[in-house]
Amino acid sequence: MNSNGWLLDRAVSGRIRAAGFESVGISIDSPDARVHDRFRNMEGSFARAVSALDHLRDSGVKTTVSCVVNRDNVHHWRSMVDLCRDHGVRTLYLHNYKCSGMGMVNMGELDLAPDQWASFYQEALAVRASLADLSISFDDPIMAALPDFTSEGAVKGSTCGKLSLHIGPDGSITPCGFIPVSIGHILEDDFDEVWFNSPILARMRSKTPQGKCASCASFTDCLGGCTARAFAMTGSFDAPDPHCWVPDDTEES
């Protein structure tokens, strides 16, 4: 289960333990309370998130922390490692910025440029390699374009529609929470039929590389990067991830 921690007090953490949850993730987007609260647009959200970590730890529930990387935290994200250690967290997830929903609205202010993403990932991988007591995980398929990067995922490219699906509060099924394209309804459609025979999922699982992806040596590993970002920016599942830093060798110099 993932939570922003706002309502997760001592009593709730006890109920979570009793219900059998093995691990709970808490979203914290900066080690600086002011930055986190501004990003979440809710004063006091940092304090509640940190308290949630402590309540879960005291109740015997393992915890992880999820952090969305953006311009406000990219220069001091390393302090998230200390925050995790201080509160008994053993896994820090560093999530890529999604250009959908409010992420699209605030993209100009918060998203990193492609070369900045490359620099961040190189730094973060070096930090991860130096740690023995804390695991750092990523969810960005574009990392396969980094030199000598070895993928650790169960599938190549975006996991949308390959490892999981998203079910909205209205019952609609979409490939992921960041792709607002309905492929069925959980109460009205046969799930196996949706999973195995959806033409939209078939397109996402077998991409046709467009633009610079068509001649890129990394395509077989990254498969165009994040499908949600590509779709949000271009309307195409097959377009290159807008975060991609690999030069387009088809352009004239």
Task: From the structure above, extract its key features.
alpha/beta; 3-stranded antiparallel beta sheet; 8 strands; 36% helix
Structure notes:
36% of the residues lie in helices and 12% in strands. With 253 residues, the protein is an alpha/beta fold. The strands form 2 sheets. It has a 5-stranded parallel beta sheet, covered by helices on one side. Strands 6-7-8 form a 3-stranded antiparallel beta sheet, with no helix packed on it. Helix 1 links the parallel strand 1 (2-3) and strand 2 (23-27). The radius of gyration is 19 Å and the shape is globular. The N and C termini lie far apart (49 Å). 33% of the residues are buried. The mean pLDDT is 93.
Number of strands: 8
Share in β-strands: 5-15%
Could you give a short account of the major beta sheet? 5 strands, parallel
Rg calc: 19 Å
Which strand order do you get reading across the main beta sheet?
Answer: 1-2-3-4-5
Distance between the termini: 49 Å
Report low-confidence residues grouped into runs of 5 or more. none
> Which structural class is indicated by helix and strand composition?
alpha/beta
Helical coverage, percent range: 25-40%
Q: What is the count of DSSP helices, taking H or I runs of 4+ residues?
A: 11
Mean pLDDT: 93
Oligomeric state of this protein: single chain
Q: Give the topology string: H per helix, E per strand.
A: EHEHHEHEHHHEEEEHHHH
**How does the overall form come out from the CA principal axes?**
globular
At a glance:
The protein is of the alpha/beta class and 253 residues long. The protein has 11 helices and 8 strands.
